[in-house]
């Protein structure tokens, strides 16, 4: 369902997610459609309630970001203290899952190859690259030398012919 | 290979057990509250889980206090009743126009008219 309006207040939790939760909480109970719709809207209202309270608590502290502590205090002051133990447990679980995920992805990158072997392969590649570079540099140097020699020879022969022609000129000048 | 696969699966199921509501949507709703600027990620997790517990709490309480105890159904009126009668859920009356009986409405209308005529 595409949202045509950009109104923030139309934001709600997806109906399907709510339906699923109601089904899990009240199995075998028939729930009227308008009741379901109401629960969806109550969720939004609840989130606003907690956010506003947590935000107020946050403003009173010298922090700019709403912290978990602020949310817990908000739950307490609004009469939802019974939720606190369970939400704290879930937070711990989320952190553990995130940590495991990070460890697992780094494990996957080194699939099967121990670190020493990877290092050894890296050193080999570097050595090879250095050697290739050296050979290339040497070749270039040789080519430069050859080019320089050729240039010298060409310059030498050019100056010989020049001298020959200039001495002729001098003779000509004497005659004039 | 199979080890990493089952590892991934158990991670996914752990995450599923933890939170079922979409966290990103909860963040959007929180940010649409006036003055709310930035929210710590952990605070977001807490709020999302609290909302889940709220849904369960509201559904169960309303069902247990339902007017039609013989039927295995949950009606709009059951929810409205809970909001009216419970301190915890009273904040919901803002979005719940309580459906009143027609005769009560007419009575209050009469009262208002009487008050007007006093002036």
Automatic annotation (TrEMBL), chain A:
Annotated Gene Ontology cellular component terms: ATAC complex; negative cofactor 2 complex
**Which segments show compositional bias classed as Low complexity?**
152-167
- Domain Transcription factor CBF/NF-Y/archaeal histone, by residue range, is 12-75
Q: Which GO terms describe its biological process?
A: negative regulation of transcription by RNA polymerase II; regulation of cell division; RNA polymerase II preinitiation complex assembly
Q: Does the keyword Metal-binding apply?
A: no
Q: What is its main location?
A: nucleus
Molecular function terms from GO: protein heterodimerization activity; RNA polymerase II general transcription initiation factor activity; TBP-class protein binding
Its subcellular locations are: Nucleus
Keywords, A to Z, come to:
Nucleus
Q: Where is this region: Disordered?
A: 152-176
Q: Which family does it belong to?
A: Belongs to the NC2 beta/DR1 family.
The protein in question is named Protein Dr1
> What species is this protein from?
Poecilia latipinna (sailfin molly)
From TrEMBL, chain B:
Q: Which GO terms describe its cellular component?
A: CHRAC
This protein's superkingdom?
Answer: Eukaryota
Please cite one Gene Ontology biological process associated with this protein.
DNA-templated DNA replication
Q: Which Gene3D superfamilies match?
A: Histone, subunit A
SUPFAM superfamilies to which the protein is assigned, alphabetical: Histone-fold
- A Pfam family name for this chain? CBFD_NFYB_HMF
CDD domains for this protein: HFD_CHRAC1-like
The answer on whether this UniProt entry bears the keyword Nucleotidyltransferase reads: yes
Keyword rRNA-binding tagged: no
What keywords is this UniProt entry annotated with? Acetylation, Coiled coil, DNA-binding, Nucleotidyltransferase, Nucleus, Phosphoprotein, Transferase
Entry's Gene Ontology molecular function annotations: DNA binding; nucleotidyltransferase activity; protein heterodimerization activity
Q: Where is the Transcription factor CBF/NF-Y/archaeal histone domain?
A: 20-81
Name where it's found: Nucleus
What biological function has been recorded for the protein in this entry? Forms a complex with DNA polymerase epsilon subunit POLE3 and binds naked DNA, which is then incorporated into chromatin, aided by the nucleosome remodeling activity of ISWI/SNF2H and ACF1. Does not enhance nucleosome sliding activity of the ACF-5 ISWI chromatin remodeling complex.
Q: How does it assemble?
A: Heterodimer with POLE3; binds to DNA. Component of the CHRAC ISWI chromatin remodeling complex at least composed of SMARCA5/SNF2H, BAZ1A/ACF1, CHRAC1 and POLE3; the complex preferentially binds DNA through the CHRAC1-POLE3 heterodimer and possesses ATP-dependent nucleosome-remodeling activity. Within the complex, the heterodimer with POLE3 interacts with SMARCA5/SNF2H; the interaction is direct and enhances nucleosome sliding activity by the SMARCA5/SNF2H and BAZ1A/ACF1 interaction. Within the complex, the heterodimer with POLE3 interacts with BAZ1A/ACF1; the interactions are direct.
The name on file for this protein is: Chromatin accessibility complex protein 1
Give the originating organism.
Answer: Poecilia latipinna (sailfin molly)
């Amino acid at each position: 369902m595409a949202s045509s309006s950009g109104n923030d207040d139309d934001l709600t939790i997806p109906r399907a997610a709510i339906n699923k939760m109601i089904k899990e909480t009240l199995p075998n109970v028939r729930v009227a459609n308008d009741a379901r719709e109401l629960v969806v809207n109550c969720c939004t209202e609840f989130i606003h309630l907690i956010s506003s309270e947590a935000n107020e608590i946050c403003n009173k502290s010298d922090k700019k970001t709403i912290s978990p502590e602020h949310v817990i205090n908000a739950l307490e002051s609004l009469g939802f203290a019974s939720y606190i133990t369970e939400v704290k447990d879930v937070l711990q679980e989320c952190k553990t899952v995130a940590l495991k995920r990070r460890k697992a992805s780094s494990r996957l990158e080194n699939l099967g190859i121990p670190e020493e072997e990877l290092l050894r392969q890296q050193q080999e590649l570097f050595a090879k690259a250095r050697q290739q570079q050296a050979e290339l540099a040497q070749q270039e140097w040789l080519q430069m030398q050859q080019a320089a020699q050729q240039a010298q020879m060409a310059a030498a022969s050019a100056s010989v012919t020049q001298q020959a022609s200039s001495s002729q000129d001098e003779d000509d000048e004497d005659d004039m | 290979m199979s080890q990493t696969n089952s590892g991934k699966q158990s991670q996914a199921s752990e995450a599923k057990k933890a939170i079922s509501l979409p966290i990103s949507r909860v963040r959007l709703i929180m940010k649409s509250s006036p003055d709310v600027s930035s929210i710590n990620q952990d605070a977001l997790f807490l709020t999302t889980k609290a909302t889940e517990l709220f849904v369960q709490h509201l559904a169960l309480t309303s069902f247990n206090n339902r007017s039609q105890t013989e039927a295995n159904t949950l009606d709009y009126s059951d929810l409205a009743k809970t909001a009216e009668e419970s301190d915890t859920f009273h904040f919901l009356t803002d979005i719940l126009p309580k459906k009143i009986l027609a005769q009560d409405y007419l009575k209050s209308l009469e009262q208002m008219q009487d008050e007007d005529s006093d002036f």
